[in-house]
Design a protein that fits this description.
Length: about 400
């Protein structure tokens, strides 16, 4: 097992008489801004749970402030169950270029499945705001005894790798093996927000494993493309791992660049792009035509759209690439939500009434073994006008990247 910084967090004064001040309604939009989002992963270690945090910038850890940890019954809870701090967090960072990682332990007895942790640096009330890292605790969070690391043992803090990318499974405990089950990848894109139940493709009730292999934990692994379930101990929940080809989460091949255009084009247009003698050149010409033959605008459209594809892959990848998911679809076409409200089993994405694209979209939790944080869009006929207005902005080359 690779050593990591070990921070001992003593939970003192639980149920303090000085509770964190909670905002009337938290805005979780920061969770979908890659430059502000704090990524969290966990590993069970005996009677403790180790939390691993990655900050997109070490500057988010303000010197002199501790790391605030709080537990809530739900995302919209007004009163904290308990709270504590990790002192001198900025001194304990492990730098990774601009980013930085940190880890510490919490007693397992203080955590329950379904409760929500918030973690933040800065003034104490930030741990109660949507700017904090928020994690709903699943059985996997509290029971999984391993994490994924890179080839030198640093935590990946993501549940996807590229085909052939070297990585390791770092298990808490000696001489353990990992059972890996491989399933086929899905290329099914999300249906439009106004699609009725009959327009939605049928989903298989159960996937059949293509093969199964056992590996020794701690050995260097390279997987071929596929969807994997990993398990170390029989009593533990299985953990999903997405393995994609090429430069994922970025896209580079012609086919990869054409596929996400499903949200902006007709099937005939996409067939023409796929069948072109030089598909990559055809993609460039598509965007140049959209931009009215203005090359700077075409380049900006390309950067914006495929930048969102990469960000959606980083944010939402689980049982399939993030851009294929319901949240990924809206992220590509409408951009990051202006405001996000969360409550038990539900998310609401709000967009401003800007250029006729304002609206509210409701997602409901639909967790699975492969995707414990999966949400599905509640589709409604009234989204049709909004959706086509947003697509038209792209087709006329008018879309600018909001907030960038």
């Amino acid at each position: 097992m690779k050593p990591f910084y070990y921070l001992v967090l003593m939970l003192l004064g639980l149920g303090s008489s000085l509770p964190l001040a909670a905002a009337p309604r938290r805005d979780f939009a920061a969770q979908y801004r890659p430059d502000r989002r704090i990524v969290v992963d966990t590993r069970r270690e005996g009677d403790s749970v180790r939390l691993y945090l990655r900050f997109p910038s070490a500057r988010l850890l303000r010197r002199g402030f501790p790391l605030h940890v709080a537990l809530w019954n739900d995302y919209d809870a007004k009163r904290v169950l308990w709270q504590d701090t990790v002192r001198h967090a900025a001194r304990r960072l492990r730098r990774e270029g601009e980013a930085a990682t940190l880890d510490f332990c919490l007693p397992l007895t203080r955590l329950r499945v379904g409760q929500v942790l918030s973690l933040a640096t800065g003034p104490a009330d930030e741990a109660a705001s949507g700017e904090a890292a928020w994690v709903r605790l699943t059985p996997e969070h509290l029971s999984r005894s391993f994490i994924l690391t890179d080839s030198v043992g640093q935590p990946l803090l993501r549940h996807y790798v590229r085909a052939g990318e070297p990585f390791m499974i770092d298990s808490y405990g000696a001489d353990l093996s990992v059972q890996a089950y491989r399933y086929p990848l899905s290329s099914l894109a999300a249906a439009p927000p106004m699609a009725g139940p009959g327009a939605l493709p049928a989903q298989p009730r159960k996937l059949s494993a293509q093969d199964s292999v056992r590996y020794r934990a701690g050995s260097l692994l390279r997987f071929q493309a596929g969807l994997y379930l990993l398990r170390v101990r029989e009593q533990e929940p299985r953990s999903g791992l997405l393995v994609e080809d090429n430069t994922f989460p970025a896209l580079t091949s012609a086919d990869e660049l054409i596929a996400p255009l499903i949200y902006l084009t007709t099937s005939a247009e996409r067939k023409k792009l796929f069948d072109a003698p030089d598909p990559k050149k055809a993609v460039d010409q598509f965007w140049l035509t959209v931009a009215g033959n203005n090359q700077p605008i075409a380049r900006q459209l390309i950067r914006t759209y495929y930048g969102r594809v990469q960000e959606a892959n980083q944010l939402f990848s689980a049982h399939k690439a993030g851009w294929l998911s319901d949240r990924g679809m809206l992220y590509l076409v409408l951009g990051p939500p202006e405001t996000v409200y969360r409550e038990a089993g539900e998310e609401r994405w709000l967009y401003r009434a800007d250029q006729g694209m304002g609206g509210t979209f409701v997602f409901r939790a639909k967790p699975s073994t492969f995707a414990p944080d999966n949400y599905e869009l509640v589709r409604r006929p009234e989204y049709e006008q909004l959706w086509y207005a947003a697509v038209e902005q792209w087709r006329k080359g008018r879309t600018a990247r909001p907030g960038r």
